[in-house]
Amino acid sequence: MTAARAFLGVEASITGRRWTGPTVEADRLAEAMVQETGLPAALARVLVARGVAPAEAERFLEPQLRDLLPDPRSLKDMETAAGRFVKAVKDRQSIAVFADYDVDGGSSAALLITWLRAMGRAATLYIPDRIDEGYGPNVPAMSALARDHDLIVCVDCGTLSHEPIAAARGADIIVLDHHLGGETLPPALAIVNPNRQDESGELGHVCAASVVFLMLVEANRHLREEGVKGPDLMALLDLVALATVADVAPLVGVNRALVRQGLKVMARRERVGLTTLADVARMDRAPTPYHLGFLLGPRVNAGGRIGAADLGARLLATDDPHEAQALADRLDALNTERREIENRVRDAALAQAEDRGLDAPLVWAAGEGWHPGVVGIVAARLKEATNRPAIVIGFDGDEGKGSGRSVEGVDLGAAIQRLAAEGLLLKGGGHRMAAGLTVARDRLEPAMARLSDLLARQGAGTTGPRDLRLDGLLMPGAVSPALIEEIERAGPFGQAAPAPRFAFAGMAIAHARRIGENHLRIAFSDGLSAPVEGIAFGAFDTPLGPLLEAHGGMRFHLAGRLELNHWQGRTKAQLRLEDAARS
């Protein structure tokens, strides 16, 4: 089968990518949608690209949780979990929450603690230290918690924790998780996990916080059947949105509705921890997935990465403004320290991976003393740079702890789990897009070779630099804040729902200048309408910046995402420039 014709004839752009665009059939469907719905053509193209039919357009643009939220009882063990949780509340039993140290775990814990507080109850929060204890429940912690608590709720962890859960004698254990399950389940009272092997997988894309939210929906139903009004669940959706975006869950289906509603809740600035953190991060407008993924999420994560593991969860759960300020300031400082550590490990890992070769099915690097709190972020950087699954491992003695990130269509978690079952890893698990592992030094090379083979069978390593997928062509005269607001109705945008990209053909560069260390500010026009401003971040780290800065009057095709630029009280439309090609 021959590849579709390159969009605007761009087979190799300035950054080496091939541009692809709508097919003739997609253009026809977009025109039909414009005629049937009256929507702007640019928005119609976006909807067609997402498989939305004209009759479904309005429902897609205004997703309602009541239409998309699944019945919690569709998940195995849900009624048992919610019933035991409510019984613990009614009988005033002691409850502990054992959570993972990332944003999803912290948000999940905060959901439970906030709900319990509204019911006049409290819970013990336990988050393991990443370095000393590692991921998930461990025997000493669980046995100690069981001595003092009637119920332990494990969130964002526990599905593979057979021995630690067995060690929690005397307490009931509920697991609320989303990581891939094994062939057998640990001896917990209830394990609610859409990625259990005996589940349908229809909800396999949700994060742990969404599983916790569904359990609270079911808990409120139990209370309602007994004539008791439960806490306001809609007010908890800011935590679900933060976890969904930060855990890189796909923004489709119910996830899209949860994040969309959660952003509205967050914009009300009612959760003191998130509000304080947003102020510390200098967020000056309504939250978007970008803010959750790149400003708030990394700061919440910073405690679990290089500081005290429970800082993020405590911030998200607190209702004390003074505690919130102290925690937010501490997390902001830790995040700055984390970036410095990350940069050192990233440079070393990239150099090592380049020496090994970046065209294999798996890109990996391992180093002595690399901080386990940043290996996941560095793996994500390698994945983004190479469009291949990436693993980064930090060794301490004879044992290395690593983290991996995957690309669309390649299930990394399943491959890691298989390696653990084959004895090549000391332990390992995760989900499709991310995984963690522990490996003995003498098994490193064979483990990575085997993993590369398993990933190659899934198609990893068969593509070069990823194609740049464009939603259509725009004229500069069509660009306005009103158009961008219309396009954003198709959002929120993020994992598996990328922000629409448009091309501008044969543009004259009105001006191009370097700003900051490596960014490019430009203005471009077709000569018929006012110039459109654009910005390309990191442009001088690629050929894009130097070529456009020295354009010499040459015309270019430009491609990128439209966005609103808020500056000094004014809002203007601009292009977030991602690529260009000589016209």
Compose a concise summary of this entry.
With 583 residues, the chain is of the alpha/beta class.
Distance between the termini: 28 Å
What integer value in Å does the Rg equal? 25 Å
Number of helices: 20
Strand order of the largest sheet: 3-2-4-5-6
Q: Could you tell me the mean pLDDT?
A: 95
Structural class: alpha/beta
Major beta-sheet overview: 5 strands, parallel
The residue ranges in which pLDDT falls below 50 over 5 or more consecutive positions are none
Instruction: Report the sheet-strand fraction.
Output: 15-25%
Number of strands: 18
What would you call the shape? globular
Structure description:
- The protein has 20 helices and 18 strands.
- The protein has 583 residues and is of the alpha/beta class.
- It is globular.
- It has helices spanning 24-37, 41-49, 57-61, 65-68, 78-90, 103-118, 139-148, 162-166, 208-225, 237-246, 253-267, 272-280, 289-306, 311-317, 321-356, 375-386, 412-421, 444-457, 481-487, 544-549, and strands at residues 19-20, 95-99, 124-126, 151-155, 172-176, 190-192, 363-368, 390-396, 399-405, 427-430, 434-440, 468-469, 472-473, 502-515, 519-525, 532-536, 555-567, 570-582.
- 41% of the residues lie in helices and 19% in strands.
